[in-house]
Amino acid sequence: MKVIPTIREMQQTMIQAKSTGKSIGYVPTMGFLHEGHLTLIDKAREENDLVALSIFVNPLQFGPTEDLSSYPKDFARDRALAEKHGVDIIFYPSVEEMYPVPLSVTVNVKDRTDVLCGKSRPGHFDGVVTVLTKLFHIVQPNKAYFGTKDAQQLAIVEGLVNDFHFPIEIVPVETVREEDGLAKSSRNVNLILEEREQAPVLYESLQAAKSIIEEGERNPEKVISFIQGLIREKSNGVIDYVQIYSYPNLKELERLEGRIIIALAVKFSKARLIDNLIFTIG
């Protein structure tokens, strides 16, 4: 496995690989790898000749109230995990390498941002798509891998690739779950025992909502109320939001039809958990 710190060397390496006919699978991360990242890497390893991983904590996507300096970092651990899971190249640039001077051009997201988690993080996704535009040009992958757990980010990335005609296939990878259905997250360790026992109700409520939709319910407000009732009945968590939109356009629906996302966020004492289901109504 090779670690590359400069844009020039990374581009040259990727151009050389593609010139020999190798397919490139790419997983962009901010490091501090967890099981969700490793699932993306494993999927990329299955489908490509070469797997590239980037580790870059992007300052553009941190808001004024978010502490960039406190973002966890452990490159030695990340490197060992990446090598164990078959990564061929880690692109590991510094902030100075990625942004040597203030940008004269940035990318702004005009749609899909004012709902779900994006509603409380104005400007966040502008930073995400700006750095991804740079990274896609640097890495030049055939496929890029994103988890469906962060469904809003996935929808925005799909919009970026489609709007700007990047020759990249975006591959969604299903959420990794515990045996009881709880979506795996680094935040789960912050749940106290009682909360950990209650937390599976998030996924349980999503599955139950899908069932009543499949049985014929088409009123989004009734489905939302149904989910809220289950969560309040079976947990002490405080509901941040339960929302239903078309997917990937993230538009409100008066009647449930087509491809939709049911998404929720629930706050426990020391952890805010998110989850979602994306499916097509037959």
How would you portray this structure in words?
The protein has helices at residues 7-19, 35-47, 75-84, 95-98, 124-139, 151-163, 193-198, 201-214, 220-234, and strands at 2-4, 24-29, 50-55, 89-91, 143-147, 169-173, 238-246, 258-267, 272-281. The protein has 282 residues and is of the alpha/beta class. It has 2 domains: 2-173, HUPs (Rossmann fold, 3-Layer(aba) Sandwich), CATH 3.40.50; 186-276, Pantoate-beta-alanine ligase, C-terminal domain (Pantoate--beta-alanine Ligase, Chain: A,domain 2), CATH 3.30.1300.10. It has a 6-stranded parallel β-sheet, sandwiched between helices. The chain has a 3-stranded antiparallel β-sheet with strand order 7-8-9, with helices on one face. Strand 3, helix 3 (75-84) and strand 4 (89-91) form a beta-alpha-beta unit. Helix 5 packs across helix 6 (151-163) and helix 8 (201-214) runs antiparallel to helix 9. The radius of gyration is 20 Å and the shape is globular. Its EC number is 6.3.2.1. Pathway: Cofactor biosynthesis; (R)-pantothenate biosynthesis; (R)-pantothenate from (R)-pantoate and beta-alanine: step 1/1. (R)-pantoate binds at residues 61, 153.
C-alpha end-to-end distance: 45 Å
Mean pLDDT: 94
Q: Can you tell me the CATH architecture of the largest domain? A: 3-Layer(aba) Sandwich
Q: Give the strand order, joined by hyphens, for the main sheet.
A: 1-4-3-2-5-6
List low-pLDDT spans. Answer: none
Percentage of β-strand residues: 15-25%
Helix content: 25-40%
Order of helices and strands: EHEHEHEHHEHEHHHEEE
Number of domains: 2
Briefly note the CATH topology name of the largest domain: Rossmann fold
Describe the largest sheet: 6 strands, parallel
CATH class of the largest domain: Alpha Beta
Give the overall shape. Answer: globular
CATH fourth-tier homologous superfamily of the largest domain: HUPs
Radius of gyration of CA atoms, rounded to a whole number: 20 Å
- What's the number of extended β-strand segments? 9
The count of helical stretches stands at 9
Structural class: alpha/beta
